[in-house]
Write a structure and sequence with these properties.
This protein is an alpha+beta fold. Helices cover about 30% and strands about 15% of the residues. The protein has seven helices and nine strands, in the order E-H-H-E-H-E-E-E-H-E-H-H-E-H-E-E. The strands form two sheets. Strands 1, 2, 3, 4 and 5 form a five-stranded mixed beta sheet that branches. Strands 7-6-9-8 form a four-stranded mixed beta sheet, with helices on both faces. A hairpin with a 4-residue loop joins strand 3 and strand 4. Helix 1 crosses helix 5. The longest helix is centred in the last third of the chain and has 18 residues.
């Protein structure tokens, strides 16, 4: 489970999309649509009077996906391994919901992993069937998750992993959190084993930033892992949302 379980995903970009029929993010029908469909739930803790910064929440969500992928319960004969395999054999869906107060406490009591950022808290849960959400999560709001950065984020470290968001798309915070998680997952699948171990040992440091227009054009033509959204919510099918940039993937 450390990599692509089906062995057929690889990079997804404007240049090589025709050669990636098994991509989990293509909007055209594929064999993945014939498999049982699961979704990876993420819940962000948002108290009305003390919400986290948007970039902090996006980065924390991306790290939460990586932590779930590498948790021992998701691997081998772990208790979550089978459902993780089923999820990755179908579309790689992620849905972000928000919770506060008692809602957050009830969600935190369910099996899962809470990942923290500077102030953000995101809990990630084992995948569930599309129509089989636990009641504690099903009642949580998914739309309208809006967060702001009180000040512009600092420039991303030049030698660190960066998940670059498209400058052309207006996504809610919840949608952007899911897309950042997709980008982190594609980067993880593409990394050599040694680089994976080093990234995991360091605690999955990463940055999420919005690319400038010129930089975005370079990134989408670079061959780096790129997320093309399936178009289920908010944006048009096939939209490029995130490019995953990691030092080991530039070589």
């Amino acid at each position: 489970m450390g990599g692509d379980p089906a062995g057929r995903l690889g990079r997804v970009s404007d240049n090589d999309i025709p050669e990636s029929p098994g991509s989990p993010f293509r909007h055209e029908p594929t064999e993945r649509d014939e498999a049982p469909q699961f979704v990876l739930p993420l819940v962000v803790h948002i108290e009305k009077d003390d919400p986290p910064a948007r970039t902090d929440a996006l980065e924390t969500a991306a790290r939460a996906v990586l932590v779930m992928l590498t948790d021992e319960r998701s691997l081998g004969d772990g208790e979550w391994a089978e459902v993780m395999r089923l999820w990755q054999d179908a579309r790689i869906r992620k849905v972000v919901r928000r919770a506060r107060g008692g809602e957050w406490r009830r969600a935190a009591a369910l099996p899962g992993i809470t990942v923290t950022g500077d102030a953000a808290e995101v809990r990630v849960f084992p995948p569930v069937p599309l129509d089989g959400w636990p009641k504690e999560l099903a009642k949580l709001q998914v739309s309208g998750t809006e967060l702001d950065d009180p000040r512009p984020p600092a420039p991303a470290p030049a030698e660190g992993p960066v998940l670059w968001l498209s400058p052309d798309l207006d996504m809610s915070a919840g949608k952007a959190m899911a897309q950042a998680g997709h980008g982190a997952q594609l980067a993880w699948w593409d990394l050599p084993e040694g680089e994976r171990k080093a990234w995991q040992a360091a605690g999955f440091p990463l940055s999420v930033r919005t690319a400038g227009a010129a930089r975005w054009r370079e990134l989408t033509a670079s061959g780096l892992p790129t997320v093309r959204d399936a178009g289920f919510t908010e944006i048009a099918p096939g939209s490029c949302t995130v490019v995953a940039d990691h030092p080991a993937l530039r070589r």
